[in-house]
Amino acid sequence: MNAYVQKVLDDLKARNAHEKEFLQAAEEMLPALSPVFDAHPEYEKANLLERFVEPERVIIFRVPWLDDKGGVQVNRAYRVQFNSAIGPYKGGMRFHPSVNLSVLKFLGLEQTLKNSLTGLPIGGGKGGSDFDPKGKSDGEVMRFCQSLITELYRHIGADMDVPAGDIGVGAREVGYMYGQYKRITGQYTGVYTGKGLTFGGSAGRTQATGYGLLYMVDAMLKANKLSVSGMKTVISGSGNVAIFAAEKAAQLGATVIAMSDSNGYVVDESGIALDVVKEIKLKERGRISEYPARAGKGRYVEGGDIWQTPCDLALPCATQNELPLLSAQALVKNGVKAVAEGANMPTTIDATHHLQKSGVLFVSGKAANAGGVAVSALEMSQNSMRLSWSAEEVDQKLHGIMNAIFENISKTAAKYADPLDYVTGANIAGFLKVAEAMMAQGAV
Ligand code: NDP
Fold this sequence. Notes:
alpha/beta, Rossmann fold, seven-stranded mixed β-sheet, 18 helices, 12 strands
């Protein structure tokens, strides 16, 4: 590893010893950037990497809200404004009990390179709260969202910081947050993306991350003389990303044989009936365990490891570190051909190395799941222009963006590393643009 990169990584570990997810993301990303620093000594002179790994700003605040019994509840919320070198901060809000500063800093760091890879002018940010929407009434979720925005509104803006959804934040939560922002500021601006279609949302945004993931997989498989068609596919999660990844995989001729939620997974060798999953998870906010009874087929496994299910294509689309080394070993043993990350950092570093060493095609989240933020940026453009594009128009642009990302990361991989090392390709390709912009803007 380049000595300067090593030094920055060591300092980062010493200063943020308790932030394990953030350090994991940095340990995956920084070593891959070594060839860039070998080629650009001026970056070291400008202390570029020390600046890059430090968020520009972190906002932490309390969110008091009234539950249905009239009791006062308090949660903690954050906005990490990581890097604005190439555009306004952009990245989702996550509502999940596991949210803390380390998780949001890892997501903000990844988001910065992901947004750069889209080729669109958006910087990196991320936010969220340890609030758990599960089991809360609509009224409770609304009051929580309104209280959160009553503080956050002063730190965001259409040209400053544009949040969106993530785990636990879908159209309902975005609608409540956007409504409160508009009410406080009196401004009808594109300050959130993932909005409803009746008030400035973009066609295709809901589907974008999952569809984009499959466009990336399709491009990668074609480049390696393989095809999605006929592939037995396992997808973890059954939320926004997983469901629309499953939809597009089926459209491209794959058979999706397993999906999950945080309690367990279902296996249905005949092909998961996605309308049933949508009904259970999107409409009723229920559990995937209901699938066999509702679909009249398949079996449910409580807990367990979905990656033990033999498949050709594995798409982790739930959460970070859900695919550890033991799971990667099972996938390889069962003959998996490709793994693409719909979630952010779902594969641990040792698992990633094992898959790559075993000849499995692997593409990391910052490239593979960039379709969501890409269409969010298209939503920002439509809002600024006061226009709405058709679903076909947006989908065509998304497809073009995912193909361009694949071309960029594979060319970069071939130039700096192994031509099939798409992980290094994504890290370097994303970083180069941010680095150039930071250098041009001076010591800020
Ligand atoms: P959702 O909340 O819609 O769905 C999340 C899914 O993952 C649910 O099935 C959930 O199960 C499961 N899950 C969440 N946390 C855990 C956990 N700790 N252990 C096991 N399973 C878990 O979120 P999204 O689909 O939006 O996000 C999924 C991933 O994709 C995240 O990593 C997110 O950062 C990433 N991503 C999302 C984008 C988007 O556009 N939404 C864009 C790019 C990346 P349960 O129902 O039981 O909670």
